Amino acid sequence: MKTGYFSMFDKIMLVHGSGGLETLSIIEEIIVKKMPIKLWNTMNGVGLDALDDGCYIKISDQYLVFTSDSFTINPIFFPGGDIGHLAASGVLNDLVVMGARPIAFLDNIVVEEGFSISDLDKIMESITRILVENNVALIGGDFKVMPRGSIDKIVISGFGIGIAGYKPIIDKIAKGDKLIVTNNIAEHGAAILASNLGMVDNYTSIKSDCKPLVKTVLPVIEKYREYIDAARDPTRGGLATVLNEWVLKTKYSIVIDRQQIPIRDDVRLFLEALGVDPLNVACEGVALLAVKPTVADEIVDELKKNGEVNASIIGEVVEPEEDYLRGRVIALTEVGGRVVVKPNPLNLPRIC
Amino acid sequence: MKTGYFSMFDKIMLVHGSGGLETLSIIEEIIVKKMPIKLWNTMNGVGLDALDDGCYIKISDQYLVFTSDSFTINPIFFPGGDIGHLAASGVLNDLVVMGARPIAFLDNIVVEEGFSISDLDKIMESITRILVENNVALIGGDFKVMPRGSIDKIVISGFGIGIAGYKPIIDKIAKGDKLIVTNNIAEHGAAILASNLGMVDNYTSIKSDCKPLVKTVLPVIEKYREYIDAARDPTRGGLATVLNEWVLKTKYSIVIDRQQIPIRDDVRLFLEALGVDPLNVACEGVALLAVKPTVADEIVDELKKNGEVNASIIGEVVEPEEDYLRGRVIALTEVGGRVVVKPNPLNLPRIC
């Protein structure tokens, strides 16, 4: 068994849960390889082996899309949201970036004995508010209590069900694709980092961006579906991880222009002061799209019209001049140079 | 907010996660009441408010059934299985008792930093083995790591998707229904109790019964669907909790004959020695069915033919002679008396 870094110790390390390449290696080697049945193939679907945000099956002329995510964030109440807000938004966004309209949600909640019932109430309030605002039904779930000391406060698993009238988006970038981010990056990760470091009072403007993209981004994906080659919400691992995943097994390079990547000054300065590259920092209210160049400007305009006023083209997929740049993400620097962008996530243990 | 026992302390107690009436009260008061959208109604479905094992929507002429469950069991390896075995069986069984054929599974795994990779491998081996044996695809999931000390070893959330060509079973017992259990009861709870008490070596014959019911019980449910008014796998809280839930809001009584309830002597004696009523103890490989009396014997025969050789009729739904017996479960005793069976679960904090 080969599980990336530290595997010689036979121990799961925090990095295995970072959302970066080590997480992929665990999933591929311990989980995907064990599963010979590709039922989704016989049902015109796509499943686990795609390692996308979700999976789908086709039933009559509809595609049913499924996704699931666990949320372990610490603190559970943070600037800009709470674990319920995050869980509902995160699951809905995984459906949105598949191009599916979320219709139903199931929540599995595990809490520590002694957990405050009024805090649980607030968290459920957040979940149901997000669902109601986006016309998504809470159709099931589970509730468990673990003894004091055996779980830190609360873990939420969310399952989302969505519908699409067309084939859902399984990420596959093509040469010439333009890359669009829909909003300022790195806000969520910066907020959790500030919280964990006890720096919230010094950086009151830094808040998680966590929000559902059902009303702003989904309509654009639905309208331009045929021009969209890939879509993802860059959570754990940030933009850098998604871009690297997309380009890794291709013969292309992705070139991005750092100066085109929308980021608020407060967030940028805070992360700079800590030596953290914003490209490695989680967003929770942003989508990254790879779209055909002919419609890229139009899509940005449409996103802006829907309220995503910071949407911006940040780069493109190119045939590289040199062979060693294939499968890599290259950033243009402020001084005209270029650097390779590696998928090194800001590895906060409980970022989402 | 009214949340049953101890609510004046604003604290979640272990009893809230027992699967008994306190769990129902938390779910109803903190979760169900917050959800005005009943989307499943417009999609010919049934959802959270049914408080059944799962929920469903109708798409063209198929019913898609969904269920989710979290598993926190301690120990994670126990006589008769492990947490992976339990998670896969438990989720599949929730679909089976809806009458749905499981087709797909998603697993959300949260582990503690330092967790053994070979243990994780064994657990995934169990999950995938159960899925493969039952022709169910693993189509997605999530993997997270929490820092040492913030979660005890591992928590698994499973999400199951099933299909039925008829309306799935939403439990609603009717007068005259016969109650059938498909196998010996109380095995799982007894095994976990023995483990937790360090008594495994003295009771080597006591093992969890955890197993999927896809091959033995589902074909019978599919064949006799129209004669089945209710079906449930009596996990947390055991038979007593399910029977009480079924009868609670009706004008009927459920009468059961303790001597007809299949239980192995080892399990009965072990529980008797501890003063625990087997009716309150979890099963993980048993279904409880409420069926029309005309076909009850036939169904038992069919179950036996499929390998459920201990299947047995244990009681029936009756119009009570006295008003105060309405909505209650009555057990006939060995000496010809009768006692009310209350839903008091064997409240092991991490039984599943």
Q: Would you spell out the secondary-structure blueprint of this structure?
A:
2 copies of one chain form a homodimer.
Chain A: H1 21-31, H2 39-42, E1 55-59, E2 62-71, E3 77-78, E4 81-82, H3 83-96, E5 101-112, H4 117-133, E6 137-146, E7 154-164, E8 178-181, H5 187-196, H6 218-223, E9 228-232, H7 238-248, E10 253-257, H8 265-274, E11 288-291, H9 296-305, E12 312-318, E13 329-332, E14 338-340
Parallel strand pairs in A: 5-6, 10-13
Antiparallel strand pairs in A: 1-2, 2-7, 3-4, 5-7, 8-11, 8-12, 9-11, 10-12, 13-14
Helix pairs in contact in A: 3-4
Strand ordering within the main sheet of chain A: 9-11-8-12-10-13-14
Give the overall form of chain A: globular
- Greatest interface: A-B, 86 and 86 residues
CATH class of the largest domain in chain A: Alpha Beta
Instruction: Flag low-confidence runs of chain A.
Output: 1-6
* Annotated CATH topology of the largest domain in chain A: Phosphoribosyl-aminoimidazole Synthetase, Chain A, domain 2
For CATH, the homologous superfamily of the largest domain in chain A is named as PurM-like C-terminal domain
Largest sheet of chain A: 7 strands, mixed
* Estimated structural class of chain A: alpha+beta
Q: From the alpha-carbon coordinates, what is the Rg of chain A to the nearest angstrom?
A: 20 Å
- Tell me how many strands of chain A there are: 14
The domain count of chain A comes to: 2
Oligomer: homodimer
| Corresponding CATH architecture of the largest domain in chain A | Alpha-Beta Complex
Estimate percent helicity of chain A.
25-40%
Number of helices, where a helix is a run of at least 4 consecutive DSSP H or I residues of chain A: 9
**Gap between N and C termini of chain A, in Å?**
28 Å
